[in-house]
Structures are given as C-alpha cells and as structure tokens.
Amino acid sequence: MHYDVDLNGRREAIQAAPSSFAPYVAAKHYADEWLKDTDLDYTIIHPDALTNNEGTGQIKTHQESEIREVRREDVAKVIVASLENDATIGKAFQVVTGDVPINEAVSTLS
Predict the structure, then answer these.
(1) What does the DSSP assignment read for 32-100?
(2) Mean pLDDT of the region 79-93
(3) In terms of Cα–Cα distance, which of 105, 14, 4, 24 is closest to 64?
(4) Mean per-residue pLDDT for 74-94?
(5) Is residue 24 flagged as an active site residue?
(6) Among 3, 24, 30, 42, the one annotated catalytic
(7) What is the pLDDT of residue 19?
(8) Nearest CA to 14 among 4, 29, 3?
C-alpha cells in the first residue's frame, strides 16, 4: 500500500501557499516526484505547519491536505522512527499532531 498525498492536494497546497513560500512548495513537490521515479530507497514525510512547542510524542499520519500543526520535536522523532523502520521505504505521508504514539503511528504505515 502506498501512502501518498494525491497530486490534486499538492497542487492546491502550491496554489494556497503565500507567495514567498510558493516556490519552496513547488520545488518540494517536483523533487518528491523525481525521487519517486528513481531506484533509490526513500521515505517522504510531509509535516504540516511547524510549531516550536514542546513535542507530545503523539502524531497522526494522514493523506488529506488539511491545514494543521505539528511540533518540530515530533517531526524529528518521526524521522528517526522512519529510519528505524524499513516498512516506511517507498512511502510518502503527512504528519500532524495527534493522539497516537509516534512509533505506533509509523509502524502502521507498512
């Protein structure tokens, strides 16, 4: 099963981005698409709006393009959990603050 954000959701994100942020969103989208077409192992993590609040250790992964927040500390822990879980290879997913422990949420991506 491939947990990817649909192309229409990304297009909407590009169009909705503030003008100063739109070039980054567009470049990230095309870099992700290029990476998926290679033979490299990859995991693409799409964090929603980042905050500097202390992490909770709990997240939600999803495919919709809802606008939500996630704490930087939790995103860092998601990256580590993804590196430690080969089942995330070849997956792309969004991360928001939620109520599922990070390792559990990442393990459900297999």
Answers:
(1) HHHHHTSSS--EEEEE-EEE-SPP-SEEEEESS----EEEHHHHHHHHHHHHT-GGGTTEEEEEEE-SE
(2) 95
(3) 4
(4) 95
(5) yes
(6) 24
(7) 79
(8) 29
